[in-house]
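Encode chain A's predicted structure.
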Amino acid sequence: MIRFEQVVKRYPSGREALADLSLEVGRGEMVFLTGHSGAGKSTVLKLLALIERPTRGRIDVAGRDTRTIGRRGVPAYRRNVGMVFQDHKLLHDRPVWDNVALPLVIAGTPRRELDRRVRAGLDQVGLLGREGAFPVELSTGEQQRVGIARAVVTKPPILIADEPTGNLDPELALEVMKLFRSFNEVGVTVVIASHDLHLIEQFGARRIALAGGRIAGEPHG
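Encoded structure for chain A:
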């Protein structure tokens, strides 16, 4: 499903975030990227979402060479890759319904489908009935759930998350991680960057440890 072949990412500042990185994630697999801050975890996810492009190397996603995807093709590509951020990136002047509906609106989903899809997404994360609430009225954990509902509302085959439990207490972090596992159990390929090894060990999924933009090892949970 995902293949990095000798990928190098060097930022304009000269910092090399990834150095000849090669890795594979199978279809329907759940994988954790681990490593210290600056190891390259977030860069891997940004490359997968086409937020960034590699300096060198090849990235294939669902059999497609991402180098062939031009700027106009990025929105359609991203409908197949749901992304969850640590800081939620919610629109605070819009209610929950608008936040979750945003990817569908961008995709041109017919109005009659919007409400059904948004309600289904909120139901999956346990927030059905909170459509009219604003982000400021929600707890941190609930805001993260809204972010997850927005990421999965287009039913993407790939779900990626950058430190999705970084701002949550241990109990909420476990609940959020169980949500990701529930999506994986219905066939979604899930890639999560996290430094919380204690939490990761509870899920028994494959871990890819990064250090200095390279694979440091792949211990199994």
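The chain has a mean pLDDT of 92.
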